[in-house]
Amino acid sequence: MDIDVEEAALEQVAALLQRPDQLEKLPELKKRADRKKLAVEAMLRTGVQGQLEGIRTAIAHLQTASDDITAISHGVKDIRERLKPFPQLKEKLRELRDANARHGQYAAAMENLKHIFNLQTTLQEIRDALDDEKSGGNLLLAHKHIMDLERARDELLAEVHKMSGTNTEKEQNLLINFFKGVDTVVAELSKNMWFILGRTLEMVKGNEQGGGPQQVVTCLRIVEREERIDKFYMDARSKNSSAFVPPGRPRNWKEKALRSLEKTVANRVDGNQLEDRSLNKAWLARYLEVCRNVIMDDLQLAKVAIPCFPPDWQIYDRYVHMYHSSVCRRLREIASERLEKSELVQLMSWIKFYASEDMLGHPRLKINAQAILQDSPVLTRSTLNQLCDQFVEMSREDLKLWLKNTVSHETLDWYKNVRPSEDNHGYFYTDLPNTVFGMLKDTKEN
After folding, report:
1. How many CA within 13 A on the CB side of residue 325?
2. Which of 97, 166, 310, 410 is the most exposed, fewest CB within 10 Å of its CB?
3. What is the DSSP letter of 308?
4. How many CB atoms lie within 10 A of CB 445?
5. pTM of the prediction?
6. What is the mean pLDDT of each run of 10 residues along the chain (446 residues)?
7. Which Gene Ontology cellular component annotation is one that this UniProt entry carries (predicted)?
8. Where are the domains of the chain?
9. Rounded to 5 degrees, what are φ and ψ at 428?
């Protein structure tokens, strides 16, 4: 390596001193080389000093870490020594723990003595509130009493849940049976609520005697309360699988409320068919026209009902989806039946009319009808093709029958002992072309 360095230095000197006149600059070159050498040495000293400081700091940290590890080791050892008596202490404190559990149960019972002693009275007040004909049922008061009784029951059940013994299940069943009347009034309350929510549009319109939008809002407030209670217990269960959850939870009343609305919508669509083919040949046209009027009126009422519902329900979009789903389901049922030719025309025409501005695409409804039909068409493409094929086949059979009857009629006229019909010029003519073209025109119009 020294030889390589020496050769590189000789080559550098040779490159600097190639001509005699460059010897005059030799002192200057020496000074420059000395300055460069001093600068490199200073950099090396700085670098070495920095490395030494880093090593010194690292050694100090290692020493501190070693001391900390030793201290922690002694601390852990001391903790282990102090924890050794705890298993025996747990057994010694078993009686105290049981006494504390009983004290908690007694405290919960003392706090809820009022509800325990007045259980039957409170249940009767709830029934009276639900049967209050003047206000259509005081649902908020009934729900308040129910929440008080449930709180008392759940606090007692939670205390029993904390215990671990052979009688725990027996005590839980005893409490559940004692408060079983609460489940009965809860069922009565929910029945009243679903009845009211099922008539939301009528109440918004003001057609229900003794009712109105305030009754709908009351039911929705109760549903929101129940949803918050469900969420509280379900969050606790998600964090701890052994956490206490009261019997009957979650109730999922929001889901049941929406199901009630959906059932009402389905009845509104299905219940408009008051006659069939045996009673009226135009039963399908009448039914589809009634459906159109009902859907248009109900969707406009659904826009009025928006302020009654919490924003996250998106109730108008839900109503649109429910009516569209019910219409699709009913028309698919009708399309699966054996329809007559005129009924096929009426059905296909109504489907085409369904998305027009006179119905689902009406400006007042503010519905993107094309997007809805693209996501969920009323009839599938295969069903539409099948209906078109049925119509073509029926038209073909009708034309065959008409032509056959027409030719038979012309044949009979030909063999009659009467003179053929004449025009104004005295030429014989027949009505056969007019009859055939009339058939084709009627078929085209259909």
Report:
1. 13
2. 166
3. G
4. 7
5. 0.67
6. 68 69 70 80 85 86 86 88 75 69 62 70 88 70 90 82 70 84 91 91 71 85 93 90 87 93 91 76 86 91 90 92 92 86 86 87 88 88 87 80 76 70 68 66 58
7. exocyst
8. 23-96, 100-239+249-260, 268-379, 392-445
9. -75, 145
